[in-house]
């Protein structure tokens, strides 16, 4: 048990390093391509498109690799790709070079995610898994926040070498990920019967996952969650705040900071509550909290001429998003782990990550388009409807999960001992 805890700590340190690296550079990739290299907004947008496409290209193979070779070799390969891509990105000065390095960078970062998730499952039992995923989520948010803060102190658009240093440092963080987590020996995959509802008997790999109706329903719900929340967090909502409400960039940074602070302060408290509740209940509750966030966004739009009131409303939007995210963190990953047959754990984690990546790529495009066209009431109404659909799908998912998968604790019913026959005759 002590050895397993040491492995888990190394995995969580790896999660924090990976998040720090992403927060360190991702916010500054656009300005690096557009302003520092002077290649324009179109080239900068193409860099992000290629980054997302790289994820779609590698994830199907990532899951198969994890199932065949284990998560550690896949993590090492992903960390190496990310380190090479990040370093090359900081050196590239032309559009083709930036696109190629962006592809390597995106492929590496995306490869690491399901490998780390599989490592968490391997290092935990069912009882402690929710806490492990909640801690991972907290560390990821903390790492990205600190990374963005530190990166912002290094970036100087008038000095191209500052951006080169930025991406070089990130390459070093991925090498640190490989050294700390990639060298941790993982317990062997548990040999256990496939969970009820899993597609273990219907083939291997992606075919088995696609045949698993419970997993498909979970992926549909996850796609809607990532489209409605994470896909809007730094795009549609940020555009609404700055363009429609007139929120200053410094105030928007304060709101994003409030989101991270909410998660850090609430996460381990919330996980104690969700441990005693159905996971589907926690997901539905997250949807209701986000519905309140969209309601506050409506308030911000209506009172946008009142600077202080609008500012409070925008900060409340991001804080409420953080509350909902805290409810989700201990639920989604453990459900995927419980649905997956042990031999297909990598495939299930990669499939879940693929859905997440698609939703996060589509969400910003839809959000920015609706806000940019001046139809912010339509945007908020659409997001509110999507949030209501999240609540409905979470409740409907309940019927497709076993009690164990939904974190329902079935208490044994005490049986009364039968009275001896002679005692019964005496009583008569």
UniProtKB/TrEMBL annotation:
Signal peptide: none annotated. The keyword Cell membrane applies. It is a multi-pass membrane protein. Residues 1-398 form the Major facilitator superfamily (MFS) profile domain. It comes from the Bacteria. Keywords: Cell membrane, Membrane, Transmembrane, Transmembrane helix, Transport. Pfam families: MFS_1. SUPFAM superfamilies: MFS general substrate transporter. PROSITE patterns: MFS (PS50850). GO terms for cellular component: plasma membrane. The chain crosses the membrane at residues 12-33, 39-62, 74-93, 99-121, 133-154, 166-184, 214-233, 253-271, 283-303, 309-329, 350-370, 376-395. GO terms for molecular function: transmembrane transporter activity. This is Putative major facilitator superfamily transporter.
